[in-house]
Amino acid sequence: MIGIIGGVGPLAGIDIARKIMEETLAHTDQEHLPVLLSSQPNRIPNRLEYLMGVEPRNPGHAIAEISMELEKTGATVIGMPSNTAHTPPIFDLIQAELAKQGSQVRFLHMIEEMAHYIQQEHPDKTVGVLATNGTRNNGLYKNTFEKLGMACLQPSESMQTKVHEAIYDKTYGIKYVSSPVTNRAHDALVAAIQELKHQGAQLGVFGCTDIPMALKEKSYNGLPVLDPNRILARALIQATSPEKLKTDDH
């Protein structure tokens, strides 16, 4: 059974649950896969603030506890739709806590799943990544991709500021105004994609699960883009019921 760590952020958990359904071969309600979504944002400290040194509590402790609860309820594989929570200071603690508890659940790593997908479906392409400051500064995508011999581009410092603000600004950022997303946030992200293309990117990756709420197309300015939430959704299906996975058209 698939388990989802929700609440990081809350809309991302709902989004990946929907994408699991969209990527599943099913013609009736009963043919869909069982999915457990645990969305408890009140229990999980802010990931970015922890990485910045503002929040003293490592979110990995709470995430590991919720993972154990999902496992006890029947989950055999778990996905977490949060890029920042996969940075080593947090994700390594989750893995250590689960091992200490004797957990047998398989916890997929979102960024590694994205890297493997690109290697398989888009080999030898230069990738440009849009992400929050926390994900970028920890080198999450860049380090993962470059270890596998994949070229990884990032926005300039000035453009990175605009990307981060498009997500976190309290007046127009996606985390604060998401239904609908503001034009200012949308346009800033599209401009960042254009810059990545000018740098030489042949493929774009949304390194924040909030970005697909603003950018829903499969390409922008002629640059194909990938949504880690959808790639993780497909990996979760592959891990539990590969015969139910739709043919990839992304």
TrEMBL record:
<protein>
    <submittedName>
        <fullName>Amino acid racemase</fullName>
        <ecNumber>5.1.1.-</ecNumber>
    </submittedName>
</protein>
<keyword id="KW-0413">Isomerase</keyword>
<dbReference type="Pfam" id="PF01177">
    <property type="entry name" value="Asp_Glu_race"/>
</dbReference>
<comment type="similarity">
    <text>Belongs to the aspartate/glutamate racemases family.</text>
</comment>
<dbReference type="GO" id="GO:0047661">
    <property type="term" value="F:amino-acid racemase activity"/>
</dbReference>
<dbReference type="InterPro" id="IPR001920">
    <property type="entry name" value="Asp/Glu_race"/>
</dbReference>
<dbReference type="InterPro" id="IPR004380">
    <property type="entry name" value="Asp_race"/>
</dbReference>
<dbReference type="InterPro" id="IPR015942">
    <property type="entry name" value="Asp/Glu/hydantoin_racemase"/>
</dbReference>
